[in-house]
Every structure is written in C-alpha cells, then in structure tokens.
Amino acid sequence: MGLSPVSPNDVATIVTTLEMRQRPPLRPMPASRLRLVAWQKPSPGKYRALFRRIGAPWLWFSRLVMDEATLVRIIHDPDIAIFAAVDPAGVEVGMLELDFRARHQCEISYFGLIPELAGQGHGRWLMAEALTRGWTKGVERVWVHTCTLDHPSALGFYRASGFTAISRTIETFPDPRATGFLPPDAAPQIPRLDTSRR
Q1: Average pLDDT of the residues in 127-138
Q2: pTM of this prediction?
C-alpha cells in the first residue's frame, strides 16, 4: 500500500466504469414534472452554459477546456444524442448525452441535474429516459462512468439502476478553478490546497 503525491494545483479522483449488458425489464416511467427536449446541433455557448450549470459543483471541466472546433465535432455528430431536461417554466435544469459512436454500444457520456433537484426522484426519471433511449436496436452494451468527485450517491445510484462496476482508474488533472475554467468558489466540498504557505 502506498500514497502517490498529487501536485497542489491538480485534482485526483478515482473513476469507476460501470456497464449493463442486457436491456433491463420494462417498468413504468417514474413520475417527474420535467420533460426531455432533444438538442439538434446546439451552439457551443448554449451547450457549455448548461454543462457548467450542472457540472460546476462536481468539477466537470472537459467540455469547457476543449477548443470550439473539437467540441462542435462532438456535439454535432449524428451519433451523439443530446437532451436538456426542462422544467414546467421551460428552464433547462438537466442534461443527458448519449454516445453511439462505438459499434453496438451506448455510453451515457453526461447525466446530471442541477443540485437543487437532488433527492426529488428526478434522477430515476432521467435514468429511465436514458435507458429507454440507450437500448436502441443493435445496442449490446450501455455504459457509464462516475468518479469520487461526483455526488456521493452517484455510484450507488448507478448500481441500483442495474449497472455493474467493471473497472477503476485514477485520473489527475489541473484544478479547473485554478486555471479559470470554473469560478474559485465552485465545488466547495473539494478543497483547494493552500500553496501560499509553501
């Protein structure tokens, strides 16, 4: 057993990959006042705004640091399906992104709701929508990954939804609060290291 040092300006997390190899039994759709709206070729600005609103509390950063051309290639790809979860007032409060680019597979690339909706059952509804859309004709595997920076219930939620954990990896990356991609007060539950005393 050993400890590996991490640079003061980096963040480290354990990533768990989970998969589902069989379509789950059909069940009634959980109730929710939200609805899904498909985004056909969203603009990078619109996409990043929702991505940041949902993901900043968990240090989602990957789509914020991407150059625009790379991001557009992904979010405009015909094998990527992007949905916004919208409340009754029409406000976008969640995101679901499904990636069908790998043959016979669907990756749930991004799945999240704004923190204010936690614990109200909307996550079960969104997962039911994700699985309904993910298990399309020819799909043999639906998979997702989560990490120790996500909501504390995320891993248990995915397992309760029928996913099986298959691998773990360690990821380190520059803290997006230090690089300016997220505000300094984002994700206060993940402390930034005080380097002024070094």
Answers
A1: 96
A2: 0.94
Q: Which fold has domain 12-22+31-174?
A: Aminopeptidase (3.40.630)
Residue ranges covered by each domain of the chain: 12-22+31-174
Give the lowest-confidence range in 15-29, 41-55, 67-81, 92-106: 15-29
Segment 157-193, tens digit of pLDDT: 999 999 999 999 999 999 999 999 999 999 999 998 8
For tokens 């990821």, the residue is: 171
Q: Nearest CA to 58 among 181, 167, 188, 194?
A: 188
| pLDDT score for 50 | 97
- CB 173, CB 7: distance < 8 Å: no
Structure tokens that stand for 178 in this block: 């230090």
Residue 66 has pLDDT above 60, yes or no: yes
Comparing CA positions, the residue from 110, 179, 106, 173 lying closest to residue 143 is 106
